[in-house]
Amino acid sequence: MSDSDTGAAGRSQGETAQLSAIELNVNDQVRRLEVDPRTSLLDALREHLRLSGTKKGCDHGQCGACTVLINGRRVNSCLTLAVMHEDDEIVTIEGLGHPDGLHPMQRAFVERDGFQCGYCTPGQICSAVGMIAEVEAGWPSHATADVTSTRIALTDEEIRERMSGNICRCAAYPNIVAAIRGIAVGDPE
Ligand code: FES
Ligand code: FES
């Protein structure tokens, strides 16, 4: 077993890892694992559960590549500990859809060419799904003109502001916005 499986990386020689046995509900499956309690949810997903669709970019909350859905809300999985989520429903890009049955947001990214290298794309898609739910719930953003309105028009400015936590090093932003706009407002372009 590698250091990353045991969470042993970074400890001084001879120090014994105190592992925690936890159960996580990931993509509608209960997964049992033993982790160092300091293990991030991102590392638990990637290194323990082998769900490598969720990407590690910065590992400190700045790029959004690690975005997953927890109880329907988008979360940077590098900023939260796996042991905190035993009672939660976690959805990763692998659980949103699959090649023969894409989630509408996944299909929109394919159809609108919303990626280049693809590294940021799982996080972009999970974030976009969570973001649209926030808009439907009437949550205003910094770009919302009337913050008292419960019906928020998802303009390109709103999309850019609300997706600003997801960085794309390839700068595929125009097509990312187009993909999300297509889902949100049925843009016929
Ligand atoms: S890897 Fe989590 S925000 Fe960058
Ligand atoms: S498509 Fe390459 S980082 Fe976004």
* Discrete helix count: 7
In the sheet with the most strands, the strands line up as 2-1-5-3-4
Instruction: Please outline the major beta sheet.
Output: 5 strands, mixed
Small-molecule binders: FE2/S2 (inorganic) cluster
Order of helices and strands: HEEHEEEHHHHH
Helix content: 25-40%
Distance between the termini: 50 Å
Cα radius of gyration in angstroms: 18 Å
Shape: globular
Strand content: 5-15%
Query: What is the number of beta strands?
Result: 5
| Average pLDDT number | 91
- Unreliable sequence segments: 1-10
Q: Decide which structural class fits the backbone.
A: alpha+beta
List the topology elements.
Blueprint: H1 3-6, E1 20-26, E2 29-35, H2 41-48, E3 67-70, E4 73-76, E5 89-91, H3 93-96, H4 104-111, H5 121-136, H6 156-162, H7 173-185
Parallel strand pairs: 1-5
Antiparallel strand pairs: 1-2, 3-4, 3-5
Bound molecules: FE2/S2 (inorganic) cluster (FES) (2 copies).
One FE2/S2 (inorganic) cluster binds next to loops.
Please describe what this structure looks like:
The chain is built from seven helices and five strands, in the order H-E-E-H-E-E-E-H-H-H-H-H. It has helices at 3-6, 41-48, 93-96, 104-111, 121-136, 156-162, 173-185, and strands spanning 20-26, 29-35, 67-70, 73-76, 89-91. It has a five-stranded mixed β-sheet, with helices on both faces. The chain is globular. The model is unreliable at 1-10 (pLDDT under 50). Bound molecules: FE2/S2 (inorganic) cluster (FES) (2 copies). The site of one FE2/S2 (inorganic) cluster has 11 residues, from loops.
